[in-house]
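Reposting from the mailing list since nobody answered there.

I have sequence plus structure tokens for a pair of proteins and want to know whether others read the tokens the same way I do. The first protein:
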Amino acid sequence: MKNDLNDVVDFDAIDRRILTELQMDGRITNVELARRAGISAPPCLRRVRRLEDAGLIRGYHAETDSSKLGWSITFFAIVGLESQKEVVLSAFEKTVATWEEVRECHMIRGGGDFLLRLVARDAAHENILTQRITGLPEVSRVQTLQTIRTSKSLAGVPI
């Protein structure tokens, strides 16, 4: 498997520090990022652009408070399909990709075919979403797991 980190020319500890800092705070100024990385601002900006061009930085986003925006429930659904043929798997992925409430969709191994993370406005909305999933023709079983609280949720990966 190809490692993108090794594909970046001269990938070093400074690049790792830049990625770590950006994962923690995507709004950090280039001047502050450079200070934390121990380099001046112009080479820091060049490094960030090189990391973006290499695909190691895919974008920037704001972390929002879902409950303050009216999405009080987060739940997971383990979904089993009638068939594991690629056409069936792809059709399911394509369908749920259009649902705004589906925030993540992972094909999984063991215990199901897909793991979805969904948000709902309330319990009634959660039930409607569950019924939507179970009503799909390719779905054979669904197990939902409602989140009580989240004690850790980190973006990115250890660098």
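The second protein, same order (residues first, tokens after):
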Amino acid sequence: MKIGELATASATAIETIRYYEREGLLPSPGRTQGNFRMYEAKHLERLQFIRHCRSLDMSLDEVRVLLRFKDAPDGDCGDVNALLDQHIGHVSTRIRELRTLERHLKELRERCGEARAADQCGILSGLDQAARGTTGAKKIAKGHLNSVHSA
């Protein structure tokens, strides 16, 4: 199948497929005489595996490790267990961060209970204070932007 067909079959953008190829996650397909990429069922299966791992919020490095084990089926999967345990830890940390973020957003929302002039808005005032570092909210915002799961 051509790249457009693979994209449709896997619900994946063409640029994402090309990116996974460049990153070595998806093997380069054969090419036709007209230089079109020609994918096989194995490409679709691998792409679906990658996409599922990504839907579980796994990083590309984690997916890369899992693919190495998948490509060596006789190997020991102890490291796969360790990788998943570590990922569960990342997810747990992120959940705690998101709960803290939710609490801060709710506190911010309580600052403005009704519509009023923007210069009187408690939410905008709270955001301004946080941006200037006069409240603890800046720390939360930074943690929110810098995911704990970068690797």
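Reply #1 (J.P.):
I read it the same way you do. The longest strand covers residues 30-31.
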